[in-house]
Amino acid sequence: PRIPKVLLEHDEVALALEAAPESLRGGAGVWVLTPAGYREWRKATNGYTCVVHRDEVEAIKPTCYDSEGTATILPAVVYFGDRLMAGAPVSTIRREVEERLRDGRFRAPSRAGVAFMLSPRIVNVIDATTGEKGTAPPHYMIYAPHVTNADLRLPMEAYEREPWLPYVAYTGAHGFIIVTVPDATTPKGR
Fold it and tell me: Residue 150: in which H helix or E strand, if any?
């Protein structure tokens, strides 16, 4: 089975912390991926926890969760990575996570909160069957369980003019509203 590439520990730690604003990095907890799955490298002293999230074999998603995300979303992230390292197929793991959300072993955030993905080195898997990969600009994610793009009531044509407008990702219990701040050097309309 295909499994995620394990980085050198110091590279994994640096990449995980790259997700957070500099002011949070020193006290943030860190989880690292090992051949046996995720391992807690450092406990948080400020309520934030950073991890390089893998939700596909080739994905590299440095993310730093606040205390609510650490309590509710991080357990599913760790489970996902552990199962990937055990060789389980992504489709199976997704079903298992959904089942655990339904039966209460995992839960949705109970309040608003924020996760940071400020690293410029995000790798998203766009199509696992073709291996197509992409990236995402640095952004913030606001927990939005069960919110949909329709709930935001932003017309799709607005995204053509202002692609940085917020949108919902991962609709469901662990859904987020993604907020990308436009680069001040980018001309309006780009």
Answer: helix 149-152
Asked if residue 183 has pLDDT above 70, the reply is: no
- Environment class of residue 82 by beta-carbon count within 10 Å: exposed (0-12), middle (13-18) or buried (19+)? middle
Q: Which two three-digit tokens encode residue 150?
A: 């329709």
Tell me what the pLDDT averaged over the chain comes to: 92
**Residue of higher predicted confidence among 183 and 81:** 81
CA distance linking residue 73 with residue 137, whole number of Å? 21
Q: Phi/psi at 102 (nearest 5 deg)?
A: -65, -40
End-to-end CA distance of the chain: 42
Cα Rg of the chain (Å, integer): 16
Cα separation, 50 vs 28, in Å, equals 7
3-state secondary structure of 173: coil
Q: Which residue has the tokens 């992230």?
A: 77
Token match 């692609």: residue?
163
Query: How far is residue 149's CA from residue 171's CA, in Å, rounded to a whole number?
Result: 8
